[in-house]
Amino acid sequence: MAPSHSRTLARLVRGKNINETSLLATDYLNHFNEIIMVIEMIPSMPECLEDAKDWRPKSYANHFQDSAFSDRDLAVLAYENSPPRFREPFDSAVATMDALVARGLEKIQAALETQNEDLIADTAATATRNLRKFVDVASAIIHGDEVTVDQSEIDDILNG
User: Is the pTM of this model over 0.85?
Assistant: First the structure.
């Protein structure tokens, strides 16, 4: 992206809930916060697992296209032009969160089959804790921090 284009986008996003440095918006994280809330309900309301299973990964652009975010077109344009030092780790964090949801739901399903309330609660808590960690990573990136997560740490979380 040309420096003048970058400055123009930074000015356009000012005051729009889109970070001027990363050109990313925290609103996208609502997609993950919603599934976290559903997972948290599963131990006391096991039928919520079906709602959780209906959750699907959603691209940044699709999230904004489907949202009521007033500056959704600008959010997508800004994302498409986000500097690679932010966009690449952000996309990696999102891919990890998508995988964590799928893996967490598999483990919760298995825990529900045991009918062991402690195991169900612990499994759901682990799933939400892991997701929150990466929501925090993604949020830091959105706010302009250059954050990276070691691949071995991601592997440990996904395989743990």
Answer: yes
